[in-house]
Amino acid sequence: MDGKHMQIGEVAARTELSLRTIRHYEETGLVAPSARSQGGFRLYTDNDVARLMVIRRMKPLGFTLDQMRDLLDATDRLDDGGELDPDEREVLLQRVREYEQSAAQQVERLRVQLSRAEDFAATLRARLPECEPVRP
């Protein structure tokens, strides 16, 4: 290896995804290793890690695998450096805008849920005697 490629274990550590999850994303076509070693091991680049991080960030926001695939396709096409017809470019940018809006809406919903959860925890804390040690 020339230092530009990582094996799946290092990628798992960097992304905080399990080996199984990374393999699942490969099986579903969301990510593919950039190369294979002579021994057949998957080899990934920083770009592959960045792609996995996009997937990892989308998952807790409730995006489906198909939506992840759609967004990655749009960003891949925008980033590949090839000439895009202005109309096609605008369609791709609109897809990305829609995902950004959806993500922002989900983040706001999660903020409301977190606020309610914090209020609930505070209510419970207030019911406990002050002399009891706080347990994690």
Structural class: mainly alpha
- Describe the strand arrangement of the main beta sheet, using strand numbers: 1-3-2
Shape: flat
Strand content: 5-15%
- Taking the alpha carbons of the first and last residues, their distance comes to 44 Å
The H-and-E topology, N to C, reads as: EHHEEHHH
Uncertain residue segments: none
What does this structure look like?
By secondary structure, this protein is mainly alpha-helical. 64% of the residues lie in helices and 5% in strands. It has five helices and three strands; from the N terminus they run βααββααα. The protein has helices spanning 8-15, 19-27, 46-58, 65-79, 86-127; strands at residues 6-7, 35-36, 42-44. Helix 4 packs across helix 5 (86-127). The longest helix has 42 residues, at 86-127. The termini are far apart.
Strand-helix topology:
Blueprint: E1 6-7, H1 8-15, H2 19-27, E2 35-36, E3 42-44, H3 46-58, H4 65-79, H5 86-127
Antiparallel strand pairs: 1-3, 2-3
Helix pairs in contact: 4-5
